[in-house]
Amino acid sequence: IDNFPPQAVGDNLISNGGQVVFSPDGSKYVRLNCAGIVIGSYLDIFDFDRCEGLLSNHRRIYKTGVPATGVAISPNSRFLYQTNTLSVLQYDLDVADVEASEILVAEYDGFESPLITNFFMAQLAPDGKIYICSSSSADKLHLIDDPVSAGLSCHLRQHAINLPTLNLGSVPN
């Protein structure tokens, strides 16, 4: 185990809400900060040197309106998925202007089971799919079947997974 000195990159956090993730290949670190409806949310995207433990090439994408809630990265480390309660966005991490690559891949369809099944936290699973939970007690999970595909080809299916019990705010094992 190596002990690396602290590193300060980018701006200070405005709040501690959101989600963080490393890309599967270890080359990127993404931090989603949900500062609230008034301030909005932002994605901090960094290149990461996993051998040296250093962050570099900081990019920030601001989002106003509905606060963003979760992030996940595809198994090939190319596509970043960002959730908010009403939609799921996809970004291409391999392009120079990540923000310009934004594509809407889903909008919440209003389904309830028994409460709203909106979009909240996201997680890449060992099967190569991305699972998304809801922010309220629900017995469904959303599923991105093919997260390595661009745009709507990723096949996001809302309330696709039936759970045996209610789940709140986390992706179960």
Q: Summed up, what is this model?
A:
The protein has strands at residues 18-22, 28-34, 41-49, 54-63, 68-73, 79-84, 87-92, 103-107, 122-124, 130-132, 138-144, 156-167.
List the keywords.
12 strands, 4-stranded antiparallel β-sheet, single chain, 173 residues, mainly beta
Your description of this structure?
Helix content is 0%, strand content 46%. It has 173 residues and is mainly beta. The strands form three sheets. It has a four-stranded antiparallel β-sheet with strand order 1-2-3-4, with no helix packed on it. The radius of gyration is 16 Å and the shape is globular.
Q: What does the secondary structure layout of this molecule look like, with pairings?
A:
Layout: E1 18-22, E2 28-34, E3 41-49, E4 54-63, E5 68-73, E6 79-84, E7 87-92, E8 103-107, E9 122-124, E10 130-132, E11 138-144, E12 156-167
Structural class: mainly beta
Shape: globular
Chain-averaged pLDDT: 90
The largest sheet is: 4 strands, antiparallel
Strand content: over 45%
Helix content: under 10%
DSSP E strands, number: 12
N- to C-terminal separation? 28 Å
List unreliable stretches of 5+ residues: none
Spatial strand order of the main sheet? 1-2-3-4
Number of helices: 0
Please state the CA-atom Rg, rounded to the nearest Å. Answer: 16 Å
What string gives the helices and strands in order?
EEEEEEEEEEEE
